[in-house]
Write a structure and sequence with these properties.
By secondary structure, the protein is of the alpha/beta class. 39% of the residues lie in helices and 22% in strands. It is built from 8 helices and 7 strands.
Length: 223
């Protein structure tokens, strides 16, 4: 059974496509997607040999060697466009995810989708996507083991978009009707408010972040 954060990610995968799971660890997600008929085939990729061996063992236990390949790869470096349609980055920090994406030119393909579940710095991911011609199609949030996790799905359109400062911290979660979304956004606002207050007390300033916090406090989700 998948953890809730991975189940949330699985719901963003298009039915019938091939999927690549970057940083797969034990390959739980590709196994789930194939066994449940969501994907016909998958690639489970990881940069560390140990986790990749764990993935291979799990794939063999489920008798899915003919449907799930494993690949030793640092991000997308060891992969090619034809390896998949939906590419998943789950369980990594947002800053690292951006580093992995920005060094791969072929991600700029309207046929591909990128499903991202950043553990931290979701704002870095949103900023990269919007400034590099990607559209964020949807976002979601869930609670898993007492922590709130977000996930988003994006595809390349070639249109560079600008947003209010707050968007990079809230994304499309303001459109989500789930109670977890309101809780996440409220906590995000409070966390950033604390950070900006501490910065200003020490004599520093971040006008863009202050603008984002003010916009977030003015929004209905904060009421």
């Amino acid at each position: 059974m998948l953890r809730k954060r991975l189940e949330m990610v699985s719901k963003m995968v298009r039915k019938g496509v091939s999927v690549v799971d970057i940083g797969t660890d034990h390959a739980y997600l590709p196994i789930y997607l194939v066994e449940n008929g969501i994907c016909a085939r998958a690639v489970a990729a990881d940069v560390v040999p140990g986790p990749l061996r764990n993935a291979q063992k799990n794939i063999a236990l489920h008798h899915l060697e003919d449907k799930i390949q494993t690949r030793l790869s640092d991000g997308l470096d060891g992969l090619a466009p034809e390896d998949g349609d939906d590419f998943i980055f789950a369980g990594m920090g947002g800053t690292l995810i951006v580093e992995l994406l920005e060094r791969t030119e072929w991600i700029r393909d309207p046929a591909k989708r990128f499903i991202i579940q950043p553990m931290t710095h979701g704002e870095d991911v949103r900023r990269f996507l919007c400034s590099n011609g990607f559209e964020i199609l949807r976002e979601d949030v869930c609670e898993d083991s007492g922590r709130l996790y977000i996930a988003l799905c994006a595809e390349y359109t070639g249109r560079v978009t600008e947003h209010p400062a707050s968007f990079y911290y809230t994304g499309k979660l303001t459109e989500c009707l789930k109670g977890e979304a309101r809780l996440y956004l409220s906590r995000q606002t409070e966390r950033l408010s604390t950070a900006i207050d501490a910065l200003e007390k020490s004599g520093g300033s971040d006008p863009e972040l202050r603008k984002a916090v003010d916009q977030m406090k003015e929004s209905s989700f904060y009421c």
